[in-house]
Structures are given as structure tokens and as C-alpha cells.
């Protein structure tokens, strides 16, 4: 496309990027907003070039523009590298539940910001743990023994007529490494055949698993709270631009810096009963009950000392007031994001681990390798895990996990894109 004569070439600028919007002007010119290199420019296209270019939103262009006193820069040269067809999705007011067009929605400011939030969130998590002497490890995705977390497993035929599972959590492998490395963390994809689609559930998640030797439930609670507050401070101080890009406020981060109250499982039942949500002892919270309880707090909060039947086989147990309790914790958001972090002490005695497997009805042979980690010298240790996607939603301050995930996999949904 030919250039037009400009009054001056002084200070000319080259812009390459996507046309975000096109607006008509009374004089026949057009004003375009162009995005490229994580920056935006508002430029005016002379009528002659505008007619020839036939600009459409999301077209890829290369421009040369010059500044004008008292006005927006004027484009002197315009080259359309790829003219976009009419879009099948609304990028101005997107429907983020529409996974069919997710590959186009990722061009919106909201999801572009989400990609950047996730980048920095991982960066600050790793810096925090690295600074405490943890080592980042890679753990398997395929496993024989399910870790028995929430949701069913995805199973498929493996070699020699065996069945393999997609891992639900990296915790067993990170746990095994404690005897050799002492302080480890893994950030892996995990897969859970969830039954319900809610604002906090996905089928494919990224999960952060942290395990450390010589630690107790109390130690990991302190670590969980310190980590979450560290993340809040980093984003509050360094990333107001991301909140602006996503059209979000960062005011919620101040709540994450408050003290985190601790209540026991028994105390949580008392609170729920007072709210009109009767929950029998030994039952898990429904989402409605969890949200009702969370609304009574002004900051994230811990629930501790769960009964043995509510936890899994890797937690030790102890007797208290005629009940079998566990040195465990869940850190809940006060904002309706559900459980953000779950952790506690781990069984390090082979006999107790074997008894726990029987208690929960698991096949001892399936977990024989894990029992061996206890038989041959296992230190007392503890750990925690957090769903990275749910953590991102909390830090961003969005009300749905879809707004913090780039290519979500949903319960009962299609795999698209």
C-alpha cells in the first residue's frame, strides 16, 4: 500500500500489531487502536489510506506515523499484513464460559492479563521457596497408584495389560524425595474427574506441592500464610498495570495481609450451626456451606484438626476427647474461592501407614513402593499443596476460575480448543 506525504518525518514511529478497534471520524478519517509488544497506540488513518486498507478489528498491520501538535499521531504509511475476517466472538464483552472460542478470547485484555498474572505468580512462588532452600523437582504424570485426592482418576490401558492413571497430585513423589533432598516443591499438571462445574473446579489443573523434612503441621501453616502474604505484597507493589489492563481492582490484596484466624473442625461446625447450616460430625462441607462460613471472615482462615475419616491415608492421627483427629489444615479464602491450600503432617512410620491404608480400604500391594519409603528410614515431615489456577483467581480478584485460566478443561465439557 502506498504511503501519503506527511508534513514532516521528524519523530516518526513504526508500529506493528493488531487493530483493536476502528472508529469513524467526521472528516472521513479513522482512528485505530493498535496493540503490539505489550503496548498500545492510538493513531489516525487518513481517509485515502483507510478506504484502501479496509481495516477490520484484529487485522495485523505495520504502520509509520508522525506526531501532530495538539492531536493524535497521523499514519503516513500503512501495510495490512493479515486482514481479519469478521469475528465469531465478541472480544469487547466476551463470554468466558464459551470455551468454543477460547482461542480468540485469549486476545482480550482480561485473558492477556491473566497470562501475565500467572507468569509472575509462578515467578514469585519459586523465588520465595528457592530463598528458603527448596529445590524444584519434576514428578511423573503417569502413575499406577492414585493419590486418592478429590475427584475420580482418568485411567487408560498401559503396557502388559496394566492400567495407568493420570496423576491427581504430585504429592506422593514429592513426599518420597524428602528422604533424599529434604526440601522440595513441584509445579505439575494434575487431573481429576470432577463431577460438578463450579466457579472453582477444573478437570486439568496446575498444582504446587511443597514438602519438607523435620516439619510439623504448625510449621507448614506458618509457611502457607507467609507465602500467601508474600504474593499479595509483590502484586500490590509491582503490578498495578496488570490490574488496570484486566479492568480489576487490587484492593482485595489488603485483606490477604491481615492475620489469618485459626479454628478447629469442631469450631467450624458450631459456626455453621449458628448460621443455620447443620452439618453432621465427620461430614465435609458443601460449597454452599463453605461459602457461608467464609463470609464470616475478613481474611483467609485456617481450619485445623480434621477427623481422620475426612482426610487421607498419609495423615497421622491422634486421640483427643474420644475422637481420632489429624494434625492437618486447610487454608480457605474468605472470598468464595474455596480451599486455597491444604496440608499437614505426614505419616512417617510404616506400621501406621499400613494401618491407614487398611482403614481407608486401599490395596496394600498397590502402594508397596510408598510403604518402602517408610520402612527404610523416613524423617518426620510435613507438606502442603495448592491449586495454582485457584490461587491465580484469588490473587487476581476474579469471581470465576475461568477468568484466571487460559485453556480450561471443565467437568463434562468438550476438549476445545
From TrEMBL:
Pfam families (alphabetical): tRNA-synt_2
UniProt-recorded Gene Ontology molecular function terms: ligase activity
Coiled-coil positions: none
InterPro entries (alphabetical): Aa-tRNA-synt_II, aa-tRNA-synth_II, aa-tRNA-synth_II/BPL/LPL, Asp/Asn-tRNA-synth_IIb
Origin: domain of life: Bacteria
All residue ranges annotated as the Aminoacyl-transfer RNA synthetases class-II family profile domain in the record: 121-408
Keyword terms of this UniProt record: Aminoacyl-tRNA synthetase, ATP-binding, Ligase, Nucleotide-binding, Protein biosynthesis
Protein's recorded name: Asparagine--tRNA ligase
Amino acid at each position: 500500500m502506498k504511503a501519503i506525504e506527511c508534513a514532516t518525518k521528524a519523530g516518526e514511529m513504526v508500529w506493528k500489531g493488531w487493530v483493536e478497534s476502528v472508529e469513524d471520524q467526521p472528516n472521513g478519517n479513522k482512528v485505530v487502536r493498535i496493540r503490539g509488544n505489550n503496548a498500545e497506540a492510538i493513531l489516525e488513518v487518513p481517509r485515502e489510506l483507510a478506504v484502501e486498507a479496509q481495516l477490520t478489528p484484529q487485522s495485523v498491520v505495520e504502520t509509520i506515523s508522525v506526531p501532530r501538535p495538539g492531536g493524535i499521531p497521523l499514519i503516513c504509511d500503512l501495510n495490512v499484513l493479515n486482514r481479519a475476517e469478521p469475528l465469531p466472538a465478541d472480544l469487547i464483552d466476551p463470554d468466558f464460559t464459551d470455551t468454543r472460542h477460547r482461542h480468540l478470547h485469549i486476545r482480550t485484555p482480561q485473558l492477556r492479563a491473566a497470562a501475565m498474572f500467572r507468569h509472575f505468580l509462578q515467578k514469585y512462588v519459586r523465588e520465595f521457596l528457592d530463598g528458603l532452600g527448596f529445590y524444584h523437582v519434576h514428578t511423573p504424570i503417569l502413575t499406577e497408584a492414585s493419590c486418592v485426592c478429590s475427584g475420580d482418576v482418568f485411567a487408560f490401558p498401559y503396557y502388559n495389560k496394566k492400567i495407568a492413571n493420570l496423576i491427581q497430585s504430585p504429592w506422593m513423589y514429592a513426599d518420597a524425595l524428602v528422604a533424599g533432598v529434604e526440601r522440595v516443591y513441584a509445579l505439575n499438571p494434575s487431573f481429576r474427574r470432577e463431577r460438578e462445574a463450579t466457579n472453582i473446579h477444573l478437570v486439568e489443573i496446575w498444582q504446587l506441592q511443597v514438602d519438607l523434612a523435620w516439619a510439623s503441621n504448625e510449621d507448614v501453616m506458618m509457611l502457607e500464610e507467609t507465602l500467601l502474604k508474600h504474593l499479595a505484597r509483590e502484586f500490590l507493589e509491582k503490578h498495578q498495570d496488570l490490574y488496570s489492563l484486566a479492568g480489576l481492582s487490587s484492593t482485595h490484596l489488603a485483606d490477604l495481609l491481615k492475620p489469618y484466624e485459626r479454628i478447629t473442625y469442631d469450631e467450624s461446625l458450631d459456626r455453621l450451626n449458628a448460621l443455620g447450616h447443620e452439618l453432621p460430625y465427620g461430614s465435609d462441607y458443601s460449597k454452599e456451606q463453605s461459602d457461608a462460613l467464609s463470609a464470616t471472615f475478613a481474611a483467609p482462615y485456617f481450619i485445623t484438626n480434621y477427623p481422620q475419616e475426612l482426610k487421607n491415608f498419609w495423615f497421622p492421627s491422634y486421640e483427643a476427647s474420644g475422637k481420632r483427629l489429624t494434625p492437618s489444615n486447610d487454608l480457605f479464602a474468605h472470598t468464595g474461592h474455596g480451599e486455597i491450600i491444604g496440608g499437614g503432617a505426614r505419616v512417617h512410620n510404616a506400621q501406621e501407614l499400613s494401618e491407614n491404608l487398611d482403614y481407608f480400604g486401599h490395596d496394600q500391594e498397590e502402594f508397596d513402593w510408598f510403604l518402602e519409603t517408610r520402612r527404610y528410614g523416613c524423617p518426620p515431615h510435613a507438606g502442603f499443596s495448592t491449586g495454582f489456577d485457584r490461587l491465580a483467581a484469588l490473587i487476581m480478584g476474579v469471581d470465576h476460575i475461568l477468568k484466571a485460566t487460559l485453556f480450561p478443561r471443565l467437568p463434562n465439557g468438550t476438549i476445545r480448543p
